[in-house]
TrEMBL record:
Name of protein: Uncharacterized protein
Organism: Exiguobacterium chiriqhucha RW-2
Annotated TM spans: 6-27, 39-57, 77-97
Keywords of this entry: Membrane, Transmembrane, Transmembrane helix
């Protein structure tokens, strides 16, 4: 990108997010935390690093990289940041919604 992507920051954000997600999964497996609250906490633990990863792209034009028609390093990095953050938020979010629907039906 025209600026730079700080890989150390992204690594720390991923580590912190994974640490809290793992802690929540451990607490849910030991039945020390109810599933709906654990999934809500996992969603929160994935949203914060996802937003921080987007904000750690310094000096880059993410929107400009998304709208480029040519395959450049800037467009590849922009799309990878967007896809990674989307997956980090959507997977726990969809799992939480499915779990809440299952609980409502039973």
């Amino acid at each position: 990108m025209s600026g730079y992507v700080n890989l150390v920051e992204i690594g720390w954000f991923l580590f912190i997010g994974l640490l809290f997600m793992g802690l929540n999964l451990f607490l849910m497996s030991r039945q020390l935390l109810r599933t709906r609250y654990g999934m809500l906490s996992i969603l929160g633990a994935s949203v914060w690093p996802a937003l921080m990863i987007v904000l750690s792209v310094q000096g880059g034009s993410v929107l400009g990289g998304l709208t480029e028609r040519a395959l450049t390093l800037e467009s590849t990095l922009a799309w990878s940041v967007v896809v990674a953050t989307t997956l980090m938020v959507c997977i726990p979010g969809i799992t939480l919604i499915r779990r809440m629907i299952q609980l409502a039906r039973s």
